[in-house]
Design brief:
Blueprint (H helix, E strand, L loop, with lengths): L10 H4 E6 L3 H12 L21 E11 L2 E13 L2 E9 L3 H4 L2 H9 L3 H12 L5 E5 L3 H9 L3 E2 L5 E5 L5 H12 L5
Parallel strand pairs: 4-5
Antiparallel strand pairs: 1-2, 2-3, 3-4, 5-7, 6-7
């Protein structure tokens, strides 16, 4: 059942997205709920193909303001700058968020593609300074969202890409192969 509360603001006014280098304070519980895993931390340089200093990690959290005193983190994504691309991972939303929304907000959220799409649109506006964004997913709902945002399948299973730069096809395939060699991220 959706929470019944007086609506004094639109869904857009009740929703905001923040980007930060470390969102663990806000998103650890959300991430654990979604994946049952510890919150993502930058991998050390020792023995990994995806070593990344902490200043190349960007984490975005979507928040929903239920009232003047209740704000909740409801969606999360982790972005890693890897060369001239971003690797997008850990994409998740609070499981019970939609059913708790007031009906008017639920309709507006749905019309905007859902909270994950709102989150990614914001992050993409801020992090469009690379050749591409890559996602690694086999989860159908996540792919449906990123597909609406211009991601395409690649010839590599699970690897999706959204090109921000017009590159020759041969260069695109070369980048895709290099990113696929990393494995899941």
């Amino acid at each position: 059942m959706r929470r019944q509360m007086p609506i004094t603001q639109s869904f857009g006014e009740a929703t905001f997205v923040l980007g930060m280098l470390d969102a663990s304070f806000f998103a650890t519980g959300l991430f654990r709920e979604a994946f049952g895993q510890p919150f993502p931390q930058p991998p050390s340089s020792a023995g990994t193909s995806l070593a990344a200093p902490t200043d190349t990690w960007y984490q975005y959290v979507a928040f929903y303001k239920w009232s003047e005193t209740a704000i909740e983190p409801v969606a999360f994504v982790n972005l890693i700058r890897h060369g001239n691309v971003y690797l997008e991972g850990g994409l998740c939303a609070r499981r019970n968020f939609y059913r708790r929304l007031p009906p008017e907000h639920w309709r507006e959220c749905k019309a905007r593609g859902g909270i994950v799409q709102v989150l990614l649109e914001h992050a993409m506006r801020e992090r469009n300074d690379a050749d591409a964004w890559f996602g690694h997913t086999s989860i159908n709902p996540a792919f449906l969202v990123i597909e609406r945002l211009g991601f395409e399948v690649t010839r590599h299973q699970y690897l999706k890409v959204r090109w921000f730069r017009d590159l020759p096809d041969a260069r695109k395939r070369e980048i895709e192969d290099a990113i696929d060699a990393i494995g899941a991220f």
